[in-house]
Amino acid sequence: MLEYLLFDLDGTLTDSSEGITKSVQYGLGSIGIEVEDLKDLLVFIGPPLDYSFREFYKLEEEQIKQATAKYRERYKKIGMYENALYPGMAALLKDLHRRGKHLAVASSKPEVFVRQILKHFNIEQYFEVIVGSGLDGSLGTKEAVVRETLSRLFPQEEGQPFTLTEEQKESTAMIGDRHFDIEGGKANGIVTVGVEYGFAKAGELKEAKADYVIKTVEELHGFLLRGSEDADEKRMKDYHKAQKKTELRKTAAQKRRERETKRNASSLTKALDILLPMLVYFVAYDIAGIVLSFTAGFLGERIGGHFYEEMLANAGTVRGILVILSLTVAMAALYPMAKWEFFLKEGTRTKEKTPDRKKQEEKGKKVRQGIVFAITAVSASIALNLIFRLCSVADLSDRYEAVVREQNSVALIAGIFLYGIFSPLAEEMLFRGLVYNRMKLYFPWKLSIVFSALFFGLYHGNLVQGLFGFLLGVVIAWYYERYEKWYVPVIFHGIVNLSSYLLLPRLPGGNVSEGGYWGYISCVIFMTIWICGMIYAGKTKKI
Asked: How far is it, in rounded angstroms, from Cα 462 to Cα 457?
């Protein structure tokens, strides 16, 4: 991204053709050379004046001095004001300055005139550095002018030779309308931008091998601001996102206050407030399941052939995909209620500016907490499964065995999405996001954990999974209360599900009741890790 921008003056910032050509005409006339057509004198715009007199009219040194003196005589009084900013240039400079670009003028015109012109057009304040040639002939080439400008933009330590780093070269550009500007920029190793709206001849800038050639001021505006516009757009998006989140949290807090007025409401009102999300969830889920199952069966029979045979052969995976879609519909139905609940815990928390060193420390702490959190979730899943198998709880429900077989019939990828993502999202949105948060308005949080976990266990529909769900629900709600972030229970739930789905069926010694490696010792080990992980979470300071 270009951050340091050196502008030529004549033909780049201003259309100075009238004032320059008339002053050159006056200077040539003083030594007996009459020029009728001012267009013939446009070549004087850009290069140093003595160079142009010598190059285009073959004047001797004394003649150059006389013509230059007469030129400056008229130019100082009249010519510099026969001038105009290119349309859109003031807006461009203002935008560049507002976005923090470092602007400079590098002109072959005497610096005293450059400053007067910039002040006349009220644009002097946009430039950090202004450099022009000296009335005494110093800085007589564009290369020297550009180098002097760079030395002021990037001051070096005293006694050190002037050099630019590669980064400085890549972020700095010379912008001009003549080949002199391009050559001066290239001689100093910086990016060069040629503008064709000035006084260059056709093809002049390309022949000078400008890095970029721009046709109009509008195009230059877009080119110079392309990177910062992206950054501004991102900042504006972040700002609007933060504003939207703040408004959401304010609304959430307002809704909490409204609902807290219901603390003294009747038992029936409280029960409806808690149970309504479950009613919406189950109705949406069941209707979606019926419609999707009918649609899948209808399409399978209509298409028939190999497709229908594949559907029947992979019935478990098909059912898994339909469940994913049904869960998505159920979440969409809950979202208008759930979006407020998810912000209730976070609505009153303020984010303070943290020193960089402390940020690094907190980042390391978060990583440690995350690792312990994941290990705890995996250990809890394995420990609970081992306990149920060792105590023969798994044999108490035929429905549980059927659910396990159905779960294992789902293809791997579909299973990961179903059990690792969609199921945790939907169930946590319902049971922790809505049911638990609403219960806390009417009951102590510990009692709310127990009853929301009980609802979660009953939701699973069989004794074994019900006990598993109840214990898991207590742990998940505790973590939610501990970290106060809605995604914490979702992640914990997803890890537990994936551990049960991926790990346990594939471990050696599947019949844990027979003891061995996957017997009582293993159960104690994973129980210990689980408990230690929760103790660590309980004692670790929240970030």
From this structure: 9
Q: Lowest mean pLDDT of 78-87, 157-166, 299-308, 341-350, name the range.
A: 341-350
Phi, psi of 100 (to 5 degrees): 85, 15
The helix or strand, by DSSP H or E, that contains position 129, with its residue range, turns out to be: strand 129-133
96 and 118 Cβ atoms separated by less than 8 Å: no
Instruction: Look at strands 84-85 and 14-15 and give their pairing.
Output: antiparallel
State the pTM of this model. Answer: 0.52
232 is catalytic: no
CB count, 10 Å around CB of 302? Answer: 9
**pLDDT score for 270:** 84
Q: Which amino acid is at 25?
A: Q
Other CB atoms within 10 A of residue 82 CB: 17
The answer to whether 503 and 386 have CB atoms below 8 angstroms apart is: no
**Dihedral sign from CA coordinates of 249, 250, 255, 261:** positive
CA dist 427 to 201, 323, 326, 353, 460, Å? 71, 13, 12, 35, 11
3-state secondary structure of 173: strand
Q: How do residues 435-471 score in pLDDT, each as one tens digit? A: 998 888 888 889 999 999 999 999 988 888 889 999 9
**Diameter of the chain by CA atoms?**
118
**Confidence at residue 501, expressed as pLDDT on a 0 to 100 scale:** 86
SS3 7: strand
How far apart CA 65 and CA 68 sit, in angstroms, is: 5
Spatial distance between the Cα atoms of 479 and 424, rounded to a whole number of angstroms: 15
Of 8, 10, 15, 181, the active-site residue reads 8
Please report the sign of the dihedral spanned by the C-alpha atoms of residue 18, residue 24, residue 29, residue 34: negative
- Residues 323 and 326: their CA atoms lie apart, in Å, by 5
Question: pLDDT tens digit string along 15-67?
Answer: 988 999 999 999 999 999 999 888 888 888 877 888 889 988 999 999 999 99
User: Around Cβ 65, how many Cβ atoms within 10 Å?
Assistant: 13
Backbone angles phi and psi of 10, in degrees to 5: -70, 125
Average pLDDT score over residue span 152-159: 84
Q: What is the 8-class DSSP label of residue 352?
A: P
**Separation CA 104–CA 370 (nearest Å):** 50
Tokens of residue 279, six digits:
């009613």
The contacts found for 34-43 with CB under 8 angstroms, 24 or more apart, are: 42/17, 42/199
